[in-house]
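seq/struct pair 1
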Amino acid sequence: MAYNKGIIMVSMKKENSNFKAIFGIYFKINRKRLILTIIISIIVFTLLTTFLLTWFNYRNKYFNNSIELNDWHRDNEISIEYRNGLKEKVSMNSNYFNLAINEILSITDTIAPDMFNKYTACMYSEMFSLRYDPQNQSYDATLMTHQLDAFMFITSNLVEGRLPINSTELIYRSSNTTHPTYHLGDQIGLQTTYQTSPIQNFTIVGIVGNFSDSFYQEGFSNDIFLEISNQQISYDHFDSDLLITSPQNFVDIMTFYPLDLIKELILRIDFDYQFSIGSISNLKEIAISINEVQSNYQNFQYLPSKASFFCADLEDFIFIFMKNWNNQTVIVLSSGIPAILLFSFIFTEIFSNGNFQKGAQFRILKLYGLEIKNIQKVILVENIIISSTGLLIGVILGTLFGFLLTIGMVNANFVLYLSAFLEPVVCVAITVLFAVLFIGGFIVESRFAKSLVQSTSEIYKSRRRKFVLKYLFSKETLLFILGVITGGIGYIVWIMVETSYYTSPVPYHNYIRFLSLEMITKLFIIIGVLLTLVSILLILSKLVVLIWRYFGEWLWTRRRNYYTLALKQLSIYSKDYQKAILIMFIIGLCITPGFIVSKSAGDHLKHEANLAVGCCDILIQGWNGKNQEILGNISAIDDIELSTEVELITLRETRIGYTIQILNIFNVSHFVEISSDNFPNEIVDYSQDDIAQLNTNMSFLMDSRYARRERYDRGKIYTSSDITDPNEELYNLTYINKFDVFPLLHQASSNYFTFLQGESYNLVMSNLTASQLMKKLEGDSYDREYYILANVSLTANNAAIIEEIEGFSSSLSVITYEEKLQTLQLEVNEFQIPFFYIITALAIFALLLFGYLTAKNIYNQRLRIIESEYKVGAKRIQIWGNFSIEFLFVIIIPLITSILITTISLHGAFGFLLKMPQTYKEFLPWLPVWLMCLIPLLSIVVIFCGWLLEMIHQVNKYKPVRQE
C-alpha cells in the first residue's frame, strides 16, 4: 500500500493534469476488480442476448405448433363465402367459376402473396329435386361443382356409371349410403321453390360413394361440405343429396335452363394457408387487411354481392395466436422474476466488491489535489470500458450460445435466427441494459466518491438527513408504494382492455391493436409484483437479522465458547449478512422448479391424455347417439374386440344455479372391461368394483369436492331435486363413492364466479339411471355429447381401423392415446421447461459465486475480530469454523422457509406457468419428501463450497500483527 501511494504522489507531481497517466495508474491499482467487473458485464449481456434471441426464435416453433394444431381443411370453418342473391336470371361467362376464384385471389395477393395459393373451391345452389315416378316426390338437393382438379378427384371415386358429357347429365352422391334417394339412370327435375315448375330432362349417369376421407387425404377441404351460418358456427354436414357436375356444365345449367328465380348462387373457398418465414412478423397487418376487406364493400365483376365472411378463420387464428403468445411472454417473464432478483443482488454485490480499496484510493486522489470532477471523469471512462466491452463481447457470445440452444429447440437456420435482432423488444432491452450499467454505474460510483471527500460538517448534515429519511422514507416503504401503484395501474387498465373485447362496438381489428396495450399493462403488473416482492423480501431479511441479533446476545450471556462467540459476532455484525438472508429467500424460488418440472409435466400429460380418450384404445367422436347402423358397423370390424357407448350430459342453469355434468355409461360391464388395462389406479381413490356397482339402479358416483362438502358416505341417499323438475316425481339415488378424476369427465368448475352461482359438480351413472332422470328434467337447458369407446386386438392396424370408421360417416373422428398425448404436448409451453432447468443451473452457479463473494466481503469487514481471536490463541480452523457457523445460521432459516413457500405455491402456479392442460385432472407437481430434503441440503453444500473456498484461503494467508 505504501508503494502504491508513492506511485500516485510522484505521478501527481509530474503530470497533475495528465488524465491518461492518472487513469493508467488507477487501472493498474484496480486491475483485478476491473477485470472481474468486465467479466460480469459480459456474462450479463450474454445471458440477456441468449434469452431474447432464443425466446423470439421459439416463437417460430410456437407458431408452427399452433398451425399443426389447426387443421384448416377440417376445422369446421370456411375461409371465404360469397352469396349472390339473384333476383333475376344472369348471363354467365363460360369461365365464370374460375374468373370468380381469380377475382378473389387478386385480393388475397395484395394481403400476403403466396399465403393463399393452396385452396379448395366450390360453387353451388340449393334446390329441390323431383323424381319422375308414381309418387312424384320432392327432395332436398344441392347442385354443386368444384375447381377442376377437385372435380376430377371426386369423379375418380365413381362406384358405377360414367362422367357427364353435357349439362343434362349429373353425378349423384347420397347422404344415406344404405337407402339412396336416386339410382343410376333416374330422371329428375330441379326447382328452386315448391311453387316453381321443375326443369326436366336431368339424368343420373354416375354414382359416387362417400369420398370425404379420401378427398381430405388428397389435400382438399372437407369443410366446403359443411352447412355454416354467417357467423361461422358449424351445424352439421350436408344432409341433402349432392348433384355434382363439371364447372362448365354448372354454368350452362345456371345460364341456359329456365330455372325460375334462382334464390342464391354461393361460392365457397377454403384455404390451406401457407406461411412463409417472414409472415410471423406481419401477422397484425395481415389481420387488419383481412378485416378491411370484410368491412368495406367490394365492387366485383363476377361477385356482385358482399362476402358473408372473408378469411375470418385466419383472422381468428392470428388473434388467438397473438393473444396466447403475449400470455406466454408474460408467463416466462413472471417465472423469471426470482432469477432476475437473484442475479440483480449478486451483481450488485460484485460491482460493490472492492469499495474499501476504492474509498482509500479516492481519498488519496483528493488528498493530493485531484478535484472531484477529475475523479468523476475517471469513473466515467471506467464505466464506458465496462459497459462497452460487456455489450460487444456479451452480444457476440449470447448470439452464439443462443443459436446452439435454438438449433435443438426450433431447427432454425442462422439467417432466420438473426432476424430476431429486428424485433424492437430485443434492441430496446439490450440498449436499456447498457444504459443501466453505464449510467447507473456512473451515478452510484460518483455518489460514493462524493461521500468520501465530504467535509466533517457535510458528513454530519448528510447523516442527519439520512436519519430523518430512514424513518420517513425507507427504501422498503418506497418500493412497496411504487410497486402497488405500478401493479394497480397495470391491473386496472388490463381489466378495462379485457372488458372492451366484449362490450365495445369497435371493429374487430381494433382488438388486435388492443393486444399491444394489453401486453404493456401486463408488463406493468410484472414490474409492480417485482418491486413489491423486493420490498417484502427486504422487510423479511431485516426481521431475520433482528431475530438473530437478540438470539446471539441472549446465548452469549449464558454460555461462552467459540461457538457462542460466533453467534455473538453475528448479533454485532448482523447487517453484514443481510444480503445473504435476502438472497436465500430468493434461492428457493429459483432452484426448486428445475428439479420437479420435467417429471411433473410428463406424468400429468400422460394421465390427461389417457383420461381424454376414456382409458381405451380408440375413442370415436361425432356419433349422434341415434344411428345404430354406424354402431353396428363399428362393432363388426374384425380387429375391434369390444366397444360401448357413453354420453356426456351437461345441465346448465338448473333450478339451484348449478352446472352439473352427468357421464351416462350405456353398458357398465363393457366400460369396466374396456378401461381395465389403462385405468389410472395410481391417481384415483375408487376402484373399478365401484364402477361395476353402477349396474344397480339409481346408484351413482359423485365429484369428490361436493361429496366431501356435503359429507357423503357410502350408501347415503341423494335426491334428484337439483336436476329434475320439482313438480315431477323426485328420485332417490344411492351414493357409491367419490372421485377426483374420471375418464371423459371434465373437471367441475370451482372458480370465483361459479362459487357465487353455486358450485358445479359431476356425476357418473348407468344408462338405466340416467334415462329415468332425463325424462324428468326441468326445461331443455342441456347439451349432449356421444362417444364410442373401443379396444382393438394387439395385432390390429390402427390406421386401417381409423380409416374404415371415418368412412362410415364424415362426422366421425377417431382419436388414440398417442395422438392425444402428442396434441397436449404441442399445447404446453416447451420453452418453459428448459427455461426452468437453466434458471436452476444458474441459481446453483449463483450460490457458489455468492458464497465466494460473501466470504471475501465478510473477511475484509471482520479483520479486527480475526486479530483478536489470534491474540486469545484461536487456531485457524477455529476462526474459519466460527465464521462458517455464523453463515450457516444466517442462511439456513430463510433458505428452508423459501423452499417451503415455493413448494406450496407451485401447486397453484405451475399449471399457469407451463400452460398445462387441465381438462380432466388438476396439475400437481411431483414433490416427494426426499427431494424436498435434498434441495435445501444441495443448496447449503453448494454455497458452502464457495464460502469455504475463499474463507479458508483468506484465513490461512492472514498474518497476525504479533508475528510481523
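seq/struct pair 2
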Amino acid sequence: MKRILQHPPESLTGKRYWRSLGELSDTPEFREWLEREFPTGAAELKGDEWSRRSFLKLMGASMALAGFGLNGCRRPEAHLVPFTKNVEWTIPGKFLYYATAMPRRTGAIPLIATTVDGRPIKLEGNPLHPASGGATDTFVQASILDLYDPSRSQRFVHKGKTSDRAAFNAYIGKLRNAFLTQRGDGLAFLVAETHSPTRERLRTELEKIFPGLRWVVYEPLLSEAQSFATELSFGGNVRLVPKLERADVILALDSDFLDCGQGSLTSVRAFSSRRRVSAAKDSMNRLYVVENRFTITGAMADHRLRCPASQIPAFAYALAGKILAATKDANLGAVIATLKAPAAAATPDDQWLSEAANDLVAKPGASLVLAGPDQPVVVQLIVYGINSALKNLGQTLVLREFPRRPSQNSILTLARDINEGRVKQLFILGGDPVYNAQRGLVEDRATGQPLDWSDLQKKVPEIVRLGYHEDSTSALSQWHVPAAHYLEAWGDTLTADGEYLSIQPMILPLFGGLSEIELLNALLGRPKTEGPELVQETFRATNPPGDFQAAWSRFLHDGFASHVQVQDQSPLFNASAAGPLAKNSWAPPPAPAAESPEIVLVGSYAMDDGRYANNGWLQELPDPITKLTWDNASLISPGFAKKLGVQTGDLVQIAITQKSARLGPIKRELVIAALVSPGHADNSITIPLGYARKMPEFSALPYAGGALKEEPKIAEQGGFNGYLLRTAANPHFIVAGGQGIESVSVRKLGRTYPLSITQEHFSIEGRGLVREATLERYRADNDFAKKMPGEEDLPHRLPSIYVHPPLDAPQQWGMSVDLNVCTGCSACVIACQAENNIPIVGKLQVAHGRAMHWIRIDRYYASRKPFNQDRGDWPEDPEIVHEPMMCQHCENAPCETVCPVNATVHSEDGLNVMAYNRCIGTRYCANNCPFKVRRFNYFDYNQRPVGKKKIAGALSIYEEYFAPLTTKGAPDIRRDGEMHLLRATD
C-alpha cells in the first residue's frame, strides 16, 4: 500500500532540484499525478492505513474478476521444427561470441555479438579495441531489434509486383551490357555513408569500366560545411580528431560532441576520462557550451550560455576578437581581418564571453574549441583560426589521414542532372531520400516550381533501390531489392579515427537480402560470392604480416587489423586560403525575434535521421532531455511560450515564406505540437527530425514459420515531419533574413495533441536524492554524498526483525555509477531492455506511467531562482543533473522485506532472485518498490494482437489462440500460459 512517508524538509536556500515545470510550480495536475502514480485502484487507499485483511480483500476481488476471462484459456498450439542444418561449433545452451562492427556515418563501432544456436541475441562493445574499450551507445544496443523487424523488406519487387533474385540477376546482366556500350553515361549512384574500404575499391573498379558514372554520398545529418572547411584549411583525405583527454578547457559552439550520433565513442570516453575523481589530488576538465537548446553536451557543461543557433557566427567572431587581442596570432588575424561585426545580430553576454576567452588563453596547447557540423563554413574557419592561436593544433586537435575518395558531386548536382535529363539509370543504396532529402532541390525548367526528390525520382527511367524497408522511396522505384542487415553480411569499415574493422555475418540473411558490395560486385559482372572473398581481397592489399590465412583469422578474431596504423600529420593551417573564403561567406543573419523566431532542425536522440523509425525500443526510450517518447515536438523556452500563450501539447503552425524570382513568395508550413523546455533559447524553436516517416505494416510474423500473406501496406509513423521545412539553402536553421528567407512565423491553433512524457513519472516526493558539490567541497568532505540534507531531524529509525543474509560468497554482485561521468545518454536503458527482452507498452500506456524499463535515468533541473507565482516567470538558465535509478537486483532489494511467502530472496553472492512457484500474487513487492520495477509488470502485454489474424472481430478471437483453426507455424508468443497473469515478468 502507498504510504505518505516523512522525508527531510527541503532547504529554503541554495539550489532546488525539479523534474518539470509542473513540479517546480507545484500545479494541481502534478499533485494529482503523484496520487495516481500507482496502478488503478491504489487511489482508493490514500489517506487511511489499511489492514492486511482489507488489502487482500481488494486484491482478491480484482483477481476473481480477472478470472472470468480465464475459463476457456489454453496455451496456443505450436508446431516445432528441428534443425535441418545444424549450426557450426554450437553446444546447446552455450553462447558463442564473434567480433564484428556496426557501420555509422561518422565512423563504425567495434562490437562483440553474442549468438545462441546461430542466432545473434545481444551486442556489446569490443573490449580488445583500444579506442572504444568495450563501449557502445543506444543505436548499437537497439540495432539487434532491427534484425528481427517483421516489417523488413522480404522480397524482390519489380514495378510493384513480387519478383525473385534470378529475375533481378538477369536484369543486372542486361543493364551491364548497356552500360558497357554507353561507358556509364547516364548512370548514377546515390549512397549512404559507410566508410567501407571494400565498397570504395569496388567503386574505383566501376569507374574504370564506366567512366561516366556519377557517385553521390548523401546523409541528411552530415554537413558538407565542415568537410569543405577542413579540406581548404588542411588539405584533402584528412580528418581533424579532437584529443579531449589532453584538454583542460573546452568550448563547444553548437557542438553536441558527447552524442555519438554527432561525435564518436572515442571522444566521449576521452572527455569522461578527465571527469573521474578518485582522490583529492585529482583535477577535472572544464566545459563551456554555447547552444540554443539543452543537449547531452550542454547538460554536462560547467558553464552554459543560451544562444540562438543562427547567432553562433556572431558569437564566434566576438570570441575570435578577444583571443586575437590576447595572442596577436597572425593566422587568426588573417581569418577575421576582413570581417565586420554584424549590426543586426544578437549581442553576446560580454562577461560570459570574456571569462571563457581568458580561460582558453590561460591554457595554450591544453584547450580546445569545437564547432558543430551544422554551423556554416565561416564558423568552422574561425574556430580553426582560434585553435591555431591557442597552440592547440597538434596537441588537442590532431590531423589524421583518412583514406577515402571524397565525392565530387552532391545531391544538389545529382538533382540538377536528373532535372536536365542526364540520368537514365539510378541506383539508390540505403537511405530514404523521398522522405529525408532537402526540399526544393532545383526548379522545374518549364514552370519554375521547386522540385522535391519525389518529383525528380519520377523523371528517371530506371531506378534500382537497395533498401531495408519497402518505403516511400521504394514505391517510386522500378526495382526494390531487400538489403541485408550488417549482422547478415560480410563487410569492412573504418572507425571515426580511421582504424580498419571487420564485419562478419552472425546469421544467413533472413529474407534473402543483398549487401551493397554484393550488388556492386554483380554490376562488375563477377561471380556471385557466398563468403568473405570480396573483403579478403581488400584485406590482402593492406599487406598483413606473415601467413595470410593466419592474419585473416586474427583479423576476424580481434575485429580490427592491428597492422594498419593510423597516421597523424603535421597540422599546418592555411590561413591565406581561409581568409578570403571567410570574407565571401560572412553573412550572419539578423537576430530572431518573438514575431519572427528561428527554426532549428536537429537529429533525434532516438530516431537519428529516421532510420530507426520502426524500432520500438528507441521509440519508447525517453529523450535524455525532454523525456518525450513516441513523438517529437517543437521545443520552445518558457519565456517564448508565455508570449505565444502556448503550453506543452498545444498545436502550433510554423509558416516559412521563401523568396522566388520566378514565382514570387513560396510558403512552407508544418503543424506540430509544442513542448516547453527549460533552458531553451528565447525566440528559437527546435524540431528533432526523424519522425512521421512512412513505413510498411506487416500482416504476419514470417520468422515464426509463416510468410507474408499479402503485400505490406504503407503507414505513417507517429510524430511530425520536420523535413518538410528543410530546404537546400537552409538545411539546419531557418531565420528571417537568412538565405532566401522572407519571413518566419508561428501561431497557436487552439487544438492540442497528446504527448507521452515521463519526466514527472515516479517522483520521489521530497527525498533528497540529488547531491552534488564542487571539487573544492569534495576535497574538504569526500563523504558529502552519504549525507541526506535534514536527515538528522528525522525520528530515530525503528528496529527491524528482518536480517539481511550474510554475503560471504567469493564473488559479490554490485553496481556503482560514477555520476561525474554519466551523460544521461540512456544506452544502459536499451542494453537492459535487450538483455532481458523487456517488452514495450506503447504510447498510451507510457502516458499512464506503465513503461516497463528496469532502469531509468532521472533528469533534474537545478536552479537557485524559484518559480515566481505572481508573474509566472520560470528560471531562465537552469542546470541539468542526471541520476540513474537502477533496478535493485543486487544489494538491498526492498521487495525482499515484505514478501509474506519468502518468494523473493537474496542469493549468497548478493543477487536478488525470485522463486516463482512460491509467489501467491499479493503484489507487496510492487507496492514496496520505489524503483517501479514491479509496479506494472502484471499487465499481460504478450496478449496484444500484434501481427495476428482476427477471425471473430466482435468477440476479439484470433486465429493463433483458437486451437482448431491454428495454422502450422503460428507464433507461440506466450511463455507460461495462464500463470503469467499471476506473476511479475522480471
